[in-house]
Amino acid sequence: MIDWSIFASALIGSVAWLYQKAWERRSQRAVIYEKIVRLLPSVTQERLNPQKLDQMLEEGRVLWLHAPDDVVLAFQAWMNAIQHAEASNESCLRDGFLMRMRRDLTFRAAVVPRFWSTRMGVGDFPVMHARR
User: Fold this and answer.
1) pTM here?
2) Nearest CA to 114 among 100, 125, 96?
């Protein structure tokens, strides 16, 4: 009986620790996502501010380390549309990026991490700068 109670306690403790670490990762990404959302009004085709765009790109580089692949790829597609002045496509890509960030902050995404392995590799992370 004592063997099972020790095993059950260890299992419960391990699950609680894994959940706590997952929630900490989620909270860390939430801080980055909030910075990006605050910069949104000044990073659109209509109101493009090069200094704010540089700040947005800096936050995007941080995404590479903390966000899952789909969020990083959506961010890069949106930034490419802004860099190449694709006004018709920009709002759709921005909305897709925002949707992926929001999905990444759900309870399910915190419990079931999606970035233990990555499909991204060498060359998938271009370093962009605002064009002045």
Assistant:
1) 0.77
2) 100
